[in-house]
Amino acid sequence: MLDPITGEVVVIAPGHSFKSVTEKISRIVLTSHTPMGWFFGLLVAGGVVMILLTCLTWLFLKGVGIWGLDIPVGWGFAIVNFVWWIGIGHAGTLISAILLLFKQTWRNSINRFAEAMTIFAVVCAGMFPLIHVGRPWLGYWLFPYPNSMSVWPQFRSPLLWDVFAVSTYATISVVFWYIGMIPDLGTLRDRAKSPVAQYAFGLLSLGWRGSVRHWMRYETASLLLAGLATPLVLSVHTVISFDFAVAIIPGWHTTIFPPYFVAGAVYSGFAMVITLAIPIRKFYHLEDLITLRHIDNMGKVMLTTGLIVAYGYGMELFMSWYSASHWEYFAFWNRLFGPMGWSYWVLITCNIALPQFLWLRYVRTHVGLMFIMSIIVNTGMWFERFVIVVTSLYRDYLPSSWGTYRATRWDYGTFIGTLGLFTFLFFLFIRFLPMIPMSELRVLLPQSKVKHLPEAAHEAGD
Amino acid sequence: MPFPEGVYGLLAEFDSATALTAAAASAYKDGWRRLDCYTPYPCEEAAEAIGFHRNYVPLLTLAVD
Question: What is the pTM of this model?
């Protein structure tokens, strides 16, 4: 369905009223007939979470030696997964904060679950550094707190900045998500039939009445939080790129890392939003609320950020030659043609070559192809982090210190386990909370606008 | 608008944001101040019609509104 004025696909399919939007979304949460597919999905995801728990238990019993970490590759899957997950979170913040400030109203349908995705991705990401420290029960040593041992974190290390960046990011994501949900929680409280749901939503909605004064304060709060979250979209991944860029390892020590990491983060994040949105809209029949316009727009964002990432790869290669540094040159030769060169070509195929199909409108509006594309990009972005972490470390300056890297089953198990945890949390979210913001969709309907008609003033008010 | 004594308040329902805003504006013009509008989505015009003003919290947090 094309909009006659803009020529774009419409954001919400026509024929919806305030009531139909509210009913459609609140029914998913308030129904007493939970679909069997949901139970099945939760069960499968819960099974994968068990893999994670097993891996973590074994890790805590035996130590990080069960992973494939060794000298020279002292950072393996844990850091790869950490960067990958935190990057995925960035799309949620971009959609909820930056697109809000730019008044991109099409984002309204997808922003709630993109924010939820951010939070769950940060949960998965934050776990990795914590379990990587070896003695996770001393994880609080990461924070500078007064103690009698004179243990103090190294403030000049980007790893410490990471602690602050990620914890700030997690906090603001949760606050933003919750504040945005309050009006919808109020709606659910009013519509809930069961006393438990009424009580729970009543508590969570903080006495929301829908007064225009509430709405104005709510809008201001959203804008303020968006203003606070916007720099975080850029700063969190910048700090994470410093973990690498500040080191003097060839292949890490480069100034292009911050912008290239941020673009990569948004790239993989949008891919993950598509991976989630396509099955959800199909399963819950939300095709008229999450329309092809959303899929199309997200495809465009992916194409753009993908090209920025491609520029990053190109510039890295160029600088390895132009810097005339022997070590830098070798690091990249090794990355392309060394024993682990296959991983670089997987990355180029998934992140640069195949996404060029996104230039075609046919591909961007084809749901099945976009789903496949999102999986490809997520794979490619995982390999990007793998290439950066592993291929830079395993052959550095001295050939006598060269080694290799082999992930163990515990590495794979932990990674797959976090995928399960993410899915598990997401299943709980779509069942118990409104996954599409009802109040923001109502604004998108044409009947929500106030028309300035002189006769309207006449008939009303007396 | 003289109301008989004992009337505590008046409640009215409107079909559209336009009608609500117009009613709120004319009530405000007639001198009523203890008013409120309830809407299912943010309606800035109605808030302005009953004399709602933004405060300085956004300024204090250095954010643009």
Answer: 0.89
